[in-house]
Amino acid sequence: MQLYVVRHGQTVWNAEGKLQGRTDIELNQNGIDAAVALGRQLAGTRFDKIFSSPLKRAVHTAQLIRQGICEGQGVAPESLEIQTDPRLIEMSFGVGEGCSCDEWFADSSPYRFFFTEPQKFPKPPQGESFEDVMARTKSFAQEIIEPLYQKADRLMIVAHGALNKGLMCYLQNHGVEDYWLNGLQENCQASVFEYDGKVWRTIKG
Fold this sequence. Notes:
- This protein is an alpha/beta fold and about 200 residues long.
- It is built from six helices and six strands.
- It is globular.
- About 40% of the residues are buried.
- It has helices spanning about 10-15, 30-40, 55-75, 100-105, 130-145, 160-170; strands at about 1-5, 50, 80-85, 155-160, 190-195, 200-205.
């Protein structure tokens, strides 16, 4: 069974360098265009189901990707189900949401270790730690995705930058210190994994 893990398309806040987290920001035109393009690229690939974060930027991305896939296969978009799950919502940055990323990650900031030494990143007020994200994405993978082995050939998850890397900690079997292994996904980038009923392996990071 294959699993495609996709980051949502670009938003206005992405373009402005603002920290989004759970703030529900919509796609900008670049994000819409990239999602449409990815759907067209995947038109020859059959998916059994798409799972999405409930935030608008992820759901819209999933819908646009689905449109391209289904149009390319000559089937109705409704034939490919999109199911949202709260465990796929982006990492909460609490009081930091809406802040400039440059300010949040500045050398003088207590959150400066976010990308460089994630094991030292302190949970922000009203926010989450990396370990929190890893726990809920592991739960989602074990309770929702893995039981579909031999029932589905190919699945997709459309979610967020930090959230997807938390999920990949489980899929790639590593800890928080390697949270950003292979770097942050670009908007509308798809990483691909394969599950044999026991072990996940990376096809495309």
